[in-house]
Amino acid sequence: MLQLGDEVVYFSAVFLLVMLGTRSAAGASLLTACLYVFMVMFRFPPVPADQAGRVLRPRAPSGGVPVVAHRGGSHDAPENTLTAIREASRNGATGVELDLSFTTDGVAVLMHDETVDRTTNGSGPVSKLQFVQLKRLDAAARHRLKDKFSVEKVPTLQEAVQECIKHQLTIFFDVKGQPDKAVSALHEMYKKFPVLYNSSIVSSFEPKVIYKMRQTNPSVVTALTHRPWRLSRFDDGTPRSVSTWGQLWTGVLDVLLDWAHHHILWKLCGVSAILVQKDFLSLDYVQYWAERGVEVVGWTVNTAVEKDYYQNLLKIGYITDSLLEDCDSHY
Ligand SMILES: *[C@@H]1O[C@H](CO)[C@@H](O)[C@H](O)[C@H]1NC(C)=O
Ligand SMILES: *[C@@H]1O[C@H](CO)[C@@H](O)[C@H](O)[C@H]1NC(C)=O
């Protein structure tokens, strides 16, 4: 009902704008009609609600909201490792969020950054390392609990998937770039482990990743990730661009992207969820999406007070760096 309402408003707005601009009712009608046909022809319907529900509302042991360990729980264990996955399960997470990356010989592995410097004892871009070279590195080398966990390997995507299945964890696959490689590697995983259709979701900041994923495999549950002002500001709020014009321009793009995410892209991609930076969440915001059949998941929720707000007020799932204690955000 509401979705139809949205559409009537948008297409009327387009019609009016074009009509005012061109002073031609025929031209405006034609353009609006073309736009409508484009949306209908090129959008992917969302996966069935019961399938999305299995992924986004898995049985939480305590009856609470779903709790997803960010990068496997980067505060509690070395991020994006098999140990992190095991720890997350032991500490009561319902799922883990994992980052996909590729070695120079095309092996899908877990790594958040473009380089291995921050998390391992190696250096340089992942994309310049052979898998055999990456395998020799210690993924626990830079972690605050490195003595507790000693040596950890960088896992392959498949190893991580199998570990999650073993522990019945939901997986949030986070895809940053390389849409073609990522989509084909993930598609392989869904073919090999069909249980993933009921227990995983592919998310990205990039709508084209999600669109491509659904084009390749329309049965996959997907989400768009959103952080307002992402193009103009870093995670900590400082401007990306030093020039005033740069800031202004990226700011305009941010407004457009924000509008597109909330009004067009979610529908075109047929996403089941939107993953939103926690500072921009409210009950009204959650309600906006609930009316459109889309779940909201907040990130990165790291304090007991915030977790309580999600559990008792918003009643939605969240992504956290720690299942055990309050901690700072690990960007
Ligand atoms: C990193 O640590 C592992 C395990 O201790 C070791 O085998 C490897 O040689 C180290 N690599 C570098 C580049 O220091
Ligand atoms: C997903 O779960 C439903 C309901 O339990 C089940 O019928 C279906 O076979 C499952 N799909 C896969 C691929 O495991």
TrEMBL record:
<dbReference type="Pfam" id="PF03009">
    <property type="entry name" value="GDPD"/>
</dbReference>
<feature type="transmembrane region" description="Helical">
    <location>
        <begin position="12"/>
        <end position="38"/>
    </location>
</feature>
<dbReference type="GO" id="GO:0005886">
    <property type="term" value="C:plasma membrane"/>
</dbReference>
<dbReference type="GO" id="GO:0008889">
    <property type="term" value="F:glycerophosphodiester phosphodiesterase activity"/>
</dbReference>
<dbReference type="InterPro" id="IPR030395">
    <property type="entry name" value="GP_PDE_dom"/>
</dbReference>
<dbReference type="GO" id="GO:0006644">
    <property type="term" value="P:phospholipid metabolic process"/>
</dbReference>
<dbReference type="GO" id="GO:0006580">
    <property type="term" value="P:ethanolamine metabolic process"/>
</dbReference>
<protein>
    <submittedName>
        <fullName>Glycerophosphodiester phosphodiesterase 1</fullName>
    </submittedName>
</protein>
<keyword id="KW-1133">Transmembrane helix</keyword>
<keyword id="KW-0472">Membrane</keyword>
<keyword id="KW-0812">Transmembrane</keyword>
<feature type="domain" description="GP-PDE">
    <location>
        <begin position="65"/>
        <end position="331"/>
    </location>
</feature>
<comment type="similarity">
    <text>Belongs to the glycerophosphoryl diester phosphodiesterase family.</text>
</comment>
<dbReference type="GO" id="GO:0070291">
    <property type="term" value="P:N-acylethanolamine metabolic process"/>
</dbReference>
<dbReference type="InterPro" id="IPR017946">
    <property type="entry name" value="PLC-like_Pdiesterase_TIM-brl"/>
</dbReference>
